[in-house]
Amino acid sequence: MQSTATLSRSRQRPAASALLELLKPVTWFPPMWAFLCGVVSSGEAVVGQLGIVVLGILLAGPLVCGASQVVNDWFDRDVDAINEPQRPIPSGRVPGRWGLYFAIAWSLLALAVGVLLGPWVFAATVLGLLLAWAYSAPPLRLKLNGWWGNAAVGISYEGLAWVTGAAVMIGGALPDGRILLLALLYSIGAHGIMTLNDFKSIDGDRQMGVRSIPVRLGPARAARLACWTMAVPQLLVAGLLLYWGSWPFALLVVGVLLAQLVAMRRLLRDPRRFAPWYNATGVSLYVLGMLASAFAVRALVGAGG
């Protein structure tokens, strides 16, 4: 039978399941997908580099993105106590300062893996983690300003992951300019995705002084802005693909954009209600367009075009 002291110590340590919940596996998909798009767009064969690709995907998702989620939950614990008190830290399932220690340890683990993948990936890992901590932690706490905070996440989750995936495949060199341009455009579009993600915490953000886009503009205007921010970069991507002579892939991007526009009509009827729904449907279409454009550049690079 356990002693009272042993039971007390066990309650002071978080369960592994609570720490995994802090890492939020559901959020790993965007940077992992963007990294994969970078791998595809590089034009290089994956055969012979599969181990590097898998390690890079793990770095982009579970490690760097996971670290950013822990950092965010630690510094958002007061807001979460209002919006989502069932989360691991405000609920007490991750007690004391365990959340902070876990954020630091997981960031160091990401840096260690980044070193293994070479100087370019290590530099990208450092930048990604700096953006993650700047987004959530004082004194910068970029998330207090929805314009800057969403930009930091869009660059980190989409553009940086995409460029890193391409650079890994070509030995750390600077990727083709078309890859850089597509990564930039999809990063801008991700700003709109992050705006929709902020709808779930409007009430707590208002109380805690977090000036997210929905708080600043109100749900209706913020939703319209998010739609424009997602749609215009995709339209530009389609135009670029046409200009580069890759019209089949341009049509694919236009097709997924049209499907998003249909979903956006429903979103705009009641943004607070339908924002989570759109994040599960419209965003899925958005990332399909990313992959289509990555294959387009792959074909162009491979053909020497």
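(the above was protein one; protein two follows)
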Amino acid sequence: MTTLAINGQAQTQTQTLPRIGDKAPDFTANTTQGEIKFHEWLGADWAVLFSHPADFTPVCSTELTEFAKRSDEFKKRGAKLIGISIDSIHSHLAWIQNLSKIMGVKISYPMIADLTTNVAQKYGMIHPGESSTVTVRALFIIDPKHVIRGIIYYPLNVGRNVDEVFRLLDALQTADKNGVACPVNWKPGDKVIVPPPKTEAEVEERLKGPYERLDFYLAKKSI
């Protein structure tokens, strides 16, 4: 149970913490680009859903504009961006205009206005030990089947690394496409890990195949 101050009144709500492999919770919400039904909006694309603590704050300003600057890189990966905080739609719209003026960057993706904390509660974005009145920096990578594939949390006072979001998204898409795994510090172009053998025949094939072998259970290949 989590106690929050919503519109000046304390309210107690039950918060869930979605896990990797769970179906992404669906919801209907008002955004800077109109009302959306989340799963319908997702369609058959990948998505990056991320929360920020509050509008008109410095670290959040750097994050939102960086995501916006690199939105074409997400589009190339077939991924949609969508942001959220427990601010009003009017605050979002005013902040977007302000960021365009002071940073020279247009926020092209939708921003969810979650004053009731309905979405934040569904996605476990409020961590009372950090703050009971704003969302932490939570980020969810959701695949075309609407399954949560990656989760990254950052505290209020540290901005995210957008390059790491790309690395994770690239790794997930590479692993899905090729039936492989990605090793530590992997980035596109690096060798990938071949799944461990499950039979003696697969062990023999592994020993003869064109792999970089450290042992029969640990082998890499180029793709």
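Reviewer note on protein two: The radius of gyration is 20 Å.
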